[in-house]
Amino acid sequence: MPGPRFVVLAVALMALFAGAYYYPYDPGTSLANAIEFYLRLQARAAGAVIALFDPSVTVRGTLINGRFPVQVVKSCSSLDAQALYAAAVLAFPARVLDKTLGLLLGVGLLSSLNLTRIAGLSLVGAHRPEWFDTIHEEILPLLLVISSCLAFVAWVRWTRRENLPAAL
Questions:
Q1: 106, 152 in Cβ contact below 8 A?
Q2: Cβ-based neighbours of 75, under 8 Å, separated by 6 or more
Q3: Which residue positions in the chain have pLDDT lower than 70?
Q4: Where are the domains of the chain?
Q5: pTM listed for this prediction
């Protein structure tokens, strides 16, 4: 079982990733452009999901227009939850191949959940606008962080599969 080294490394990586995420990059810099590109991709993907329920949807940059317009901004990107997950995976003592697979699958899962979150928020806004703020600001961000933690626990169990007792 991992000990203090894991905790120290995980906290250090989380602080590093949080600093990189929350840093106010000047527009036009490489990292600002990369984040903007990711936000545009998320908007396009979420727009495609929303279009299944609202054929009037159009996407322009990071703005999804439809019955309830949604702007995908940095705080809606799930990059913070992905950074939390990635820091824990990278700090955990495991094989490089297991970490690589864990990062690819976990980040993919969190990204998919975030697309579902954005699409769901659009539907909530269109049908229950009085619920939007609570669901947007309280419930779904918490569920995304919980999902990040559960994904990490599942990945740890998977990496330790050879150490688990055989099922009878």
A1: yes
A2: none
A3: 1, 162-168
A4: 4-161
A5: 0.88
